[in-house]
Amino acid sequence: MARLSDRLSLKVKKTVLARVAVSLIRIISTTLRLKVEGWDQYANSDEKLIFCGWHGKSFIFANQFRKRGYWVIISNSNDGDIQDKVFRSLGFKTIRGSTGPDRGGIKAALQGVKALKEGGTMAITPDGPRGPSKVVQGGVMLMAKKSGARLVPIGISAQRAWYARSWDSYMFPMPFSRARMIFGEPIEIPEKATEEEVESVRLALEQETERLDQLAANWA
After folding, report:
1. pLDDT recorded at residue 4
2. Shortest CA distance to 95 belongs to which of 65, 125, 67?
3. Which domain covers residue 30, as residue numbers?
4. pLDDT digits (tens, 9 = 90+) for 115-146
């Protein structure tokens, strides 16, 4: 009975935390003076796309893409359970796993490939869910190569924000702050790309995402 009670208590706690998180995202986001650049070329696109922004900047990322039915990958951890509830409440579809090279990451990537081939769009934090921060993991590259989807780097920043003491220095923008979100040009992996060519694309995505992130920070 004690174990059942503990599990029920944990489930309730996760639900409450998720609702609080959703409320904070929605309330703070409505106050932000957000400038979005480069979105027009993707707004009505019917091509396969994987939007890529750093894990630590997903607060603005999550609100901007809400209610579009985009797919996201959420870790299988306890924190991931909360994030799963948050993203589902914001109108995302979720896959549980990671973008890393482990078994869970490969399984999640293959589910992502299936979703993309069926016409879905992915919104990915390519350095998540465990990092290292700002290092693109192999899962997103596998998804892009197997599905033919193009990778879209995104830079995000806010003029005033709190930063968590976490591996990704997670950014919580302050209410009424100026913020910027920049969509870059799409990057494609050739269907028959070699391992060396895939690695070259991975580095290009990593460098361009960081360049856009710095550009957004400098403006903000």
Report:
1. 55
2. 125
3. 2-219
4. 999 999 999 999 977 789 999 999 999 999 99
Residues 6+ apart with CB under 8 A from 69: 91, 92, 93, 120, 121
Q: How many domains does the chain fold into?
A: 1
- Answer yes or no: are the C-beta atoms of 83 and 184 closer than 8 Å: no
**CA-to-CA distance for 195 and 96, rounded, in angstroms?**
26
d(C-alpha 114, C-alpha 11), whole Å: 30
